[in-house]
């Protein structure tokens, strides 16, 4: 066991050394924000640093990543503003020169004349004119005219609205804020089109793909993509061999003939947890309703079946609430499970446990409702920019809630860590065979509380590369890393209490499993940051280690088989049929959603072309709901199963399970994936801006595919209805039950 612990500790230490090292490189080599952007020859000031930084705050206040995307990160209906700005700027300059030199539009010129003007454009756009001593960027007069044209275009979009982008009229009307927003959009495009000093690629490693300025994939992206695939195949072989060699070597245990948990002692605090499941069911239902509204905006833009809903609930707000509620209800489910299992772990109920549970319950309601109200107020421009940062809309996908609500949530998590950890520590002191399992559980609980604070590591005026770095610490490490460790250990603990697996074996397997997926998962965080103003180290390490993330997922077939065999091993196991079915679904979607669709967009050579397309939405839905959502639902069912003393009527759960899984498959295969493939082909052959253009997204074929999504959505929604119906009904029954 010491050897396994040593491997685990080494993985953690070495991985974070690498991740923090790349972080320091991001801070030191990020695209500079100049004090001034000036016009060549005249030194006329075009933008200032204050304009760019305030423009970023303005962008955040209108919804940020929920209104189109920057550097590929964000929503899919509106364009990627960086790619769109670069393309429009290039077209304007080429046409202006073509008219002056040849008195023709650029598209009508022969190949030789086009090549001449394109070379001039590349020289103008890609030459880095940032002066370190004066801290200024110099812009040519031709480019300045293109910038002014773009500013008119984007000012009109955000002030007058555009249905195809789901941007309502009056989204932003303040002229000063509009000018500052344009300054920020210019800076993001400058960083993506200007070469790094002493390099032949831009600050974003030539992202986006834009043939007009020779923004094409770099050799680094190709090389590290190839190496990642080789390493993936190598380590799949090694891990499969290791698994087949060792998976039968656990301590022998005779599975009991009757359920060991039949007479499980229940505690008052476990009854206090039940109300969480009702609220979680309501949040799930609300999230699905908001998802239906959000996806419908991609068809009508401003309306919901003819009703002008955008006046009250614009796309940026509905999508914010949809994604945020997913994180809220899934995290709340896992946290409630920890509180429910805590007295089972220690065998006693600690002082003030019920008070803490009730306090956290109220805090959950305050954070959910308060942050949703703040986001609505922020997007509607009722808050000044600083107030918006603290109480409104921060503008970053999956962590849109204002800083005040983040702090309140952080305090709640610290309280949760204390409440759960004291039970685990009490059990560890018994020094029995479950000690190692409980230690890794304790570490995962502490990590969940600690790593949420990574989302507080940037400020109101931090730069975009720095914010993205810490954002993915939260979204990837907190959710996909340490919550996954927590889930693995919780399931192992439950199975050990059911005497399906020996506690000592469960501990050894849990530590080994955590070591394997954290070995890829911690440094694999960088695969989100390939083209976010980061140095090439992010591509090298991100590509290599994100491939290793997929390795353990290839063995999910074994996990599915073992869980299935569990159900057939003893008659009493049928009592736990539906929680185990949901755990089987987690394993399936872990392989398909996180594995197959995750690796589809993980290698730099793939992500370069398809970042921010519907292929990303495929991975998001199948991994976030398919893995973490299904796991959360499985946790709810296992807690209710432990608490309930009656046989379950299976019809609702059977309909819920199959509708959820069939609906998710249909949603992906009938709509999201085909649209993503069409966009990917367009991005590769024509350029990234074309793949996000309204002309493509509102073409007859894509519109038909959007409508076909209704098939999967309806089936999925039926599954949600039956699951919530069962959960609420069973919870109410258990509320009425007296604790023995």
TrEMBL record:
<feature type="transmembrane region" description="Helical">
    <location>
        <begin position="656"/>
        <end position="681"/>
    </location>
</feature>
<keyword id="KW-1133">Transmembrane helix</keyword>
<feature type="transmembrane region" description="Helical">
    <location>
        <begin position="621"/>
        <end position="644"/>
    </location>
</feature>
<dbReference type="InterPro" id="IPR054309">
    <property type="entry name" value="NorB_cytochrome_c-like"/>
</dbReference>
<feature type="transmembrane region" description="Helical">
    <location>
        <begin position="578"/>
        <end position="601"/>
    </location>
</feature>
<protein>
    <submittedName>
        <fullName>Nitric-oxide reductase large subunit</fullName>
    </submittedName>
</protein>
<feature type="transmembrane region" description="Helical">
    <location>
        <begin position="707"/>
        <end position="728"/>
    </location>
</feature>
<keyword id="KW-0472">Membrane</keyword>
<dbReference type="Pfam" id="PF22085">
    <property type="entry name" value="NorB_cytochrome_c-like"/>
</dbReference>
<feature type="transmembrane region" description="Helical">
    <location>
        <begin position="437"/>
        <end position="458"/>
    </location>
</feature>
<feature type="transmembrane region" description="Helical">
    <location>
        <begin position="354"/>
        <end position="373"/>
    </location>
</feature>
<feature type="transmembrane region" description="Helical">
    <location>
        <begin position="507"/>
        <end position="530"/>
    </location>
</feature>
<keyword id="KW-0812">Transmembrane</keyword>
<feature type="domain" description="Nitric oxide reductase subunit B cytochrome c-like">
    <location>
        <begin position="38"/>
        <end position="209"/>
    </location>
</feature>
<feature type="transmembrane region" description="Helical">
    <location>
        <begin position="536"/>
        <end position="558"/>
    </location>
</feature>
<feature type="transmembrane region" description="Helical">
    <location>
        <begin position="273"/>
        <end position="299"/>
    </location>
</feature>
<feature type="transmembrane region" description="Helical">
    <location>
        <begin position="5"/>
        <end position="24"/>
    </location>
</feature>
<feature type="transmembrane region" description="Helical">
    <location>
        <begin position="470"/>
        <end position="495"/>
    </location>
</feature>
<dbReference type="Pfam" id="PF00115">
    <property type="entry name" value="COX1"/>
</dbReference>
<dbReference type="InterPro" id="IPR000883">
    <property type="entry name" value="Cyt_C_Oxase_1"/>
</dbReference>
<feature type="transmembrane region" description="Helical">
    <location>
        <begin position="321"/>
        <end position="342"/>
    </location>
</feature>
<feature type="transmembrane region" description="Helical">
    <location>
        <begin position="404"/>
        <end position="425"/>
    </location>
</feature>
<dbReference type="InterPro" id="IPR036927">
    <property type="entry name" value="Cyt_c_oxase-like_su1_sf"/>
</dbReference>
<feature type="transmembrane region" description="Helical">
    <location>
        <begin position="222"/>
        <end position="245"/>
    </location>
</feature>
